[in-house]
Amino acid sequence: QELRPKSLDIKQEELGDMVEKEMASTSEAIEDAVRRIEEMMSQARNESSGVKLEVNERILNSCTDLMKAIRLLVTTSTNLQKEIVESGRGAATTQEFYAKNSRWTEGLISASKAVGWGATQLVEAADRVVLHTGKYEELIVCSHEIAASTAQLVAASKVKAEKSSRNLARLQECSRNVNEMAANVVASTKSGQEQIEEKDTMDFSGMSLIKLKKEEMETQVKVLELEKRLEGERVRLGELRKQHYVLAGGCEDAPEDGEARPAPAPRRGILKKPPIAQKP
C-alpha cells in the first residue's frame, strides 16, 4: 500500500467529490465555450464581410457543432459513471467505491479535465483566427486533441461498464459524433485557409525582371530556412512524445491490487511507422 503512487495529494475519501466537481467543471467550461463562440459570431458579422466573413462563419459554425457534441458526450459519460457506481458498490457507499477503485477514479478525473481543457483551447484558437492574430494550424491541432481526449474519456468509462449497458452504447455513439464534428472543424479550417490565401495572393504582374529575380532569391532563402526549422521541430516533437510516453507509462503501469507491472522501456525508434508490406 505504501508503494502505490499518491493520488495527486488528494485523499481517497475526497475522490468521489473530485469526480463530480470535475464533471461539473467540464460541463461549465463547454457551456462557456458555446457562449463565447456565439459572441465571436456576432463580432465577426459586424467587423468582417465577403470571403473573410464566409470563412469565419463556417469555422465558428463547425466549432459550435463540436461543442454541442462534446456537451452531449459529457452528459452521457456522467450518466454512465453513476450507473457504474450504483451497480458496483454493493453495500458500500459511493465514497467507498471511489476509494476502492482509486486508479479508475483518477483516470476518469484526468479524462474529464482533458476534455474541458481541449474545449477551452479550441475556443481561444478560434478567437485568434477570427481576429487574424492566430494560426489556422492551432485550430487543427486543438481538434485532434479533443478527439484524443474523447477517446480517453470513453476508455476510462468503458473499463468498468457492462457490455450490455445502454449508456455505454450511447457514449460510444457520442464519441463517434465528436470525432466527426472534430473532422468537420479541420475540414472547414483547411478550406477557409485556402480561400483566404488565394484572396491574399500577391500579384507579380507589375514587377520588373530585376525585382522578380530578387524576390525569387529571397523566397529560396526562406524555403531553406523553413525546411531547416521544420526538421528541428520534428526532432523536438519526437523527444516530447517520447518523454510523454515515459511519464504516462509510469503512471498507467503503476502496481494496483498488489500486482507488480513493469513499465515498458521506451525505445528511440518507437515513433517510427512500421514498414508497409509490399504486394507481390
TrEMBL record:
SUPFAM superfamilies: I/LWEQ domain. The keyword Metal-binding does not apply. The keyword Coiled coil applies. Residues 207-243 form a coiled coil. Transmembrane segments: none annotated. It is found in: Cytoplasm. It holds the Pfam family I_LWEQ. InterPro entries: I/LWEQ_dom_sf, ILWEQ_dom, Sla2_fam. This is HIP1R protein. It comes from Rhadina sibilatrix. The gene is Hip1r.
